[in-house]
Amino acid sequence: MNTATQTAPLTLEQLRAQDAWNQCVDYEKEHVNIAKGLPALIMNSGLMQVLAFCHEKGKKEKGLPYEQVATHLRTWLSQRFKNVAPDEGFERFMQSLLKAQPADYQAITTEAYAWLRWMRQMSSARLKQVKEV
After folding, report:
1. How is the chain split into domains, by residue range?
2. What is the torsion angle, in degrees rounded to the nearest 10, for the CA atoms of residue 105, residue 107, residue 109 and residue 113?
3. Could you report how far apart the first and last alpha carbons of the chain are, in Å?
């Protein structure tokens, strides 16, 4: 096998970036603004409260971008923490967080911040790219 064609496994940062890039393909300006604001909301209110807020907003047509961004976040977190929160659906994910050990909950929240850092950057970049075309 040629070593020039072998690639190293992706780092966690690369995986986050790739997931954010893929998820934000259809994002509009409102999605980008939501992604930019979620870390501060989580810091002030907590992950579960923010996910509940986004879910509630998503029930109204104008709030759909909130639910979409939150769903993408839950999907990422459920993939990263299969043992703690194996289901990305709102109800089951929230139940998993309610039962999570404090250290697991803290790790999930930390991961949410890390993923959202990438989502903020990637969604802004993709939005500009779409507008330029």
Report:
1. 12-132
2. 180
3. 40
Which tokens hold the place of 54?
A: 């986004």
At 41, which amino acid appears? L
Q: Which two tokens stand for residue 30?
A: 């409102």
Q: How far apart are CA 130 and CA 106, in angstroms?
A: 36
Cβ 123 vs Cβ 34: under 8 Å: no
Q: Could you give the angle at which helices 29-45 and 47-58 cross, rounded to 10 degrees?
A: 140
DSSP helix/strand/coil, 126: helix
Q: What is the CA radius of gyration of the chain?
A: 16
The CA distance from 112 to 130, in Å, is 26
pLDDT digits (tens, 9 = 90+) for 9-22: 999 999 999 999 99
The CATH number of the structural domain formed by 12-132 is 1.10.520.30
In this prediction the pTM is 0.88
| Cα three-residue angle 40-44-45, rounded to 5 degrees | 115
